[in-house]
Specification:
Blueprint: H1 5-18, E1 39-44, H2 48-59, E2 65-69, H3 106-121, H4 127-140, E3 145-147, E4 150-156, E5 163-169, E6 172-183, E7 191-192, H5 197-200, E8 208-210, E9 224-228, H6 232-243, E10 248-252, H7 264-267, H8 270-275, H9 281-294, H10 300-307, E11 312-315, E12 318-326, E13 329-334, E14 337-341, E15 343-346, E16 351-352, H11 361-366, H12 370-373, H13 383-386, E17 411-413, H14 419-422, H15 432-450, H16 452-461
Parallel strand pairs: 1-2, 1-6, 2-3, 6-17, 8-15, 9-10, 9-15, 10-11
Antiparallel strand pairs: 4-5, 5-6, 7-16, 12-13, 13-14
């Protein structure tokens, strides 16, 4: 019989108590300029990483924390907005959100409701179940998340000892001060996605969407759609549109054939995931450049699902300069075929460019990029990789010009832009087991260094008495 969620909650309380060592609070409070007590850490983004980092910091006795998310409660991350896959792309055995506590894992949550047989019968985690699990994790651990708080500016307080964060909220603009900040704002958090200008100029806005936009695929009922891009999101959108009643869905891509290899699965081993940061810059660059050069198709289950649907088709050698729209019909050429569609979905991926994030203007003005720190060998250049931020081993930004912005190590990030510095899968749930503790240690490091002198004085100023040493009697 399934254990039940009530029994699981009791087991979690016991596990947390057993693993609570060390228990003393250790972070000294600090006053903000407005008279409030500053947060030890502000986490921007309430998705899977934001919740995991909040839980991990609290276990490490970093108590003054808050998580801020621009979305309404329940819509954090992609799982109920623009993600359209039926199940996660990673193996169901992935871990990380539970931070080493089995009773907090997805598997424990699932088995508490469906039993061991239910777990064994599952192939991969259903997308909506993953979000249900994250909701449960947030509620069970009573994590301090503030929804509909959108970051509009992050900047240092004069002197650089604190950060000032300004948010747009339903109650108006709010200001929060924090000693550190983690940006856990998802794949688009260090740049974004955009419809290429050459596409936007030729196709009317009402016939054009990006796969990362939130929209109801039922809008395509009875239509022919063309999808630009043959990655997982392109396949997911095509399949979802067909199930919603689209007449046809043509997935188009520029390469001569669909990328069939996925070496990211090879990277999912304890050595690579945990110690990628120790590799020399040239090797990191080599791994990422190779991945970009070969591209990435959809996972096999996604591919198998899509090609089995009536109306699905796959087309190589897309000629972008052939794209036109006249009289409500979109035409484009793929190889020796000319396709026609009623609507166009752009699924060409994400870009990394801190300058595209206005809320990070102060960071972008001073943060080092890979192009500032690394010169690739001839033939290995990549303008796209050069724009990735050059982070330290804990995921903190570094200064472009030493001494000009020492406050940058207070800002850490686990977004798409982190993957060149921290590892190709570090920002996904498959890398969380190793990346989340790394970020947590980065926050602790900064907080401890902030109070180094205060701790030293406390160490010397206390008597630390432990044994009741009796006073010696005088000799008579």
């Amino acid at each position: 019989m399934p254990e039940g969620l009530a029994e699981l909650r009791a087991r979690i309380s016991e596990d947390l108590e057993i693993l609570a060592y060390p228990t003393p609070d250790w972070v000294s409070p600090r006053a903000a300029p407005n008279g409030s007590i500053a947060l030890d850490c502000a986490i921007i983004g309430g998705g899977q990483y934001g919740l995991t980092l909040a839980a991990g910091l609290r276990r490490e006795r970093v108590g003054r924390i808050a998580v801020f998310d621009a979305a309404p409660q329940g819509l954090e991350g992609p799982w109920r907005s623009f993600a359209r896959m039926a199940m996660l792309r990673t193996p169901k055995t992935l871990t990380g959100t539970e931070l080493g506590i089995p009773s907090l894992s997805f598997r424990a949550w699932w088995e508490a409701q469906h039993g061991r047989a239910g777990w064994e019968a599952m192939f991969r985690i259903p997308r909506t179940a993953w979000m249900d699990y994250l909701d449960w994790l947030r509620a069970t651990l009573d994590l301090p998340v503030r929804n509909r708080w959108a970051l509009i500016a992050l900047e240092p307080v004069e002197g650089g000892a604190l950060l000032r964060l300004r948010f747009a909220t339903p109650e108006g603009e709010q200001t929060i001060h924090a000693a550190t900040c983690i940006l856990a704002t998802g794949a688009a958090g260090s740049g974004g996605y955009a419809i290429p200008a050459e596409v936007a100029e030729r196709v009317p806005a009402e016939r054009l969407v990006h796969a990362n936009d939130s929209f109801d695929v039922a809008r395509f009922a009875g239509q022919r759609i063309a999808v630009l891009g043959a990655g997982a999101s392109g396949f997911d959108t095509a399949a979802a549109a067909l199930r919603a009643g689209a007449r046809a869905a043509a997935v188009c891509f520029r390469r001569a054939s669909l990328p069939g290899a996925n070496p990211r699965r090879w990277m999912e081993n304890a050595g690579f995931l945990a110690q990628y940061v120790a590799l020399p810059d040239a090797r990191k660059w080599g791994y990422m450049r190779h991945l970009l050069s070969i591209g990435q198709g959809p996972p096999k289950p996604t591919y198998d699902d899509a090609i089995a649907l009536p109306g699905f088709s796959l087309h190589a050698k897309l000629a972008m300069d052939s794209l036109t729209c006249a009289n409500g019909t979109i035409s484009l050429r793929c190889g020796d075929q000319t396709l026609q569609a009623d609507a166009l979905v752009v699924a060409t991926g994400l870009r990394v460019n801190l300058a595209d994030r206005p809320e990070l203007a102060a960071v972008a003005a001073h943060a080092a990029l890979w192009e500032d720190r690394f010169q690739p060998a001839p033939g290995q250049e990549s303008a796209a990789l050069g724009r990735f931020p050059y982070l330290d081993q804990h995921g903190a930004f570094t200064e472009r010009h030493p001494g000009t912005a020492p406050w940058l190590d207070r800002v850490l990030t686990i977004t798409r832009g982190a993957v060149l510095s921290l590892g190709p899968v570090s920002a996904s749930n498959s890398g969380m087991k190793y990346t989340a503790p790394r970020l947590i240690e980065g926050v602790k490091r900064r907080l401890l260094l902030d109070q180094e002198e205060q701790d030293w004085a406390a160490f010397l100023g206390q008597d630390h008495a432990e044994l009741p040493i009796p006073t010696a009697e005088p000799i008579r």
